[in-house]
Amino acid sequence: MANCAVCGKGNHYGIKVSHSHRRSNRVWKSNIKRVSCKVNGTPRKLYVCASCLRSGKVERA
């Protein structure tokens, strides 16, 4: 999966622990969208996470 072009956020890995304490691997996927953004005045498609879009770190084209 892609990483955010602004903050670098990507997948997070860890261990899921059940009630009986059996452990298995799991993945938390970040909310990353492919968005058309202005980069030096020209529109380009970038992968950006939802928190960077909400905070206004990216100007949409």
From TrEMBL:
One of its GO terms (molecular function) is structural constituent of ribosome. One of its GO terms (cellular component) is ribosome. GO terms for biological process: translation. Keywords: Ribonucleoprotein, Ribosomal protein. SUPFAM superfamilies: L28p-like. It comes from the Bacteria. Pfam families: Ribosomal_L28 (PF00830). Belongs to the bacterial ribosomal protein bL28 family. HAMAP family: Ribosomal_bL28. This is Large ribosomal subunit protein bL28. It comes from Roseburia inulinivorans.
